[in-house]
Amino acid sequence: MVTPNVTDVPADPNNKHDAYFRTVMQRPANAASELRTVLPKSLAELVNWEKLELQSTSFISTELGTRYGDLLFRTRLNDHDAYICLLIEHQSSNDRLMALRILEYMVHVWNHHLDQKPRPKTLPAVIPLVVHSTPTGRTWTAPRDIIDLIDLDPTTLAAAGPYLPRLRYLLDDLNRIDTARLLTRDLTPEALFTLFLIKTAPANKHVTIDLQHSRDLIEKILEGPDGPRDFSVALTYIMRVGDTDPAEIEAFVDEFGPRAKEAYVTTAERLEARGEARGEARGEARGEARGRAETLLDLLTLKFGPLPEGVVATVRAGDAEQLRGWTADVLTAQHLDQIFG
Question: Which residues does the UniProt record annotate as the domain Transposase (putative) YhgA-like (predicted)?
Answer without folding.
Answer: 15-187
